[in-house]
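User: Design a sequence. Structure:
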């Protein structure tokens, strides 16, 4: 709509109801459909000067309970829990990870004072505001440019990327709940970057390409 209005302001003829600029292709899906899921997007850290696993641990202890050196085979089950606590797996190589559980629940609120509670409660928002920005100095501009931060939806890719030296460490996250996205939208907020990988995806070209005999 904004693009159409911009063209109108520039004098482009698009008042005709059949003009292509008056249309945009989209799909609507019931947000509570049980077939709609959101997959997690994990964070990969790279190219940081003077990176130290022990320094990171020390900086995190004030806000997180840390269980160190858990076998990577137990990663997925360690992240899952019945309560609503914020948990992240911090992997820096060697086949073992640290389980981080947020204990200072006021930390996200202090770092995001202008955000709605629904946004503050997002795992990814906590990761960005309480870990990536203060501990690694990866701010929003850095994230957007992916200077020191990359993303993957594969836990195996994250682990192998660190083991092979492509990345210094990785943070494995739990998926965002669909209900959380609904609440953030209802509050008028926008989701953090790389936090809404919806699945399944529509088939590319399903209604885009002309079908001929």
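Assistant: Done.
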């Amino acid at each position: 709509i904004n693009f159409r209005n911009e063209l109108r302001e520039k004098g482009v003829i698009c008042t005709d109801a059949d003009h292509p600029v008056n249309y945009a292709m989209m799909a609507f899906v019931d947000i509570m459909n049980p077939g709609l899921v959101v997959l997690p997007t994990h964070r990969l850290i790279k190219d940081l000067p003077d990176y130290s696993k022990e320094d990171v641990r020390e900086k995190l202890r004030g806000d997180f309970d840390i269980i160190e050196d858990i076998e990577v085979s137990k990663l997925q089950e360690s992240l899952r829990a019945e309560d609503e606590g914020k948990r992240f797996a911090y992997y820096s190589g060697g086949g073992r990870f640290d389980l981080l559980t947020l204990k200072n629940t006021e930390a996200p609120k202090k770092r995001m004072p202008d955000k709605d509670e629904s946004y503050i409660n997002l795992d990814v928002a906590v990761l960005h505001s309480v870990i990536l920005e203060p501990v690694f100095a990866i701010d929003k501009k850095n994230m957007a440019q992916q200077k020191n931060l990359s993303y993957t939806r594969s836990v195996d890719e994250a682990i192998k990327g660190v083991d092979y030296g492509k990345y210094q460490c990785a943070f494995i996250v739990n998926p965002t709940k669909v209900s959380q996205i609904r609440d953030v939208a209802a509050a008028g907020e926008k989701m953090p970057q790389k936090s809404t990988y919806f699945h399944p995806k529509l088939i590319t070209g399903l209604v885009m390409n002309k079908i001929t005999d």
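The first helix runs from residue 2 to 9. The CA atoms of residues 63 and 105 lie 8 Å apart.
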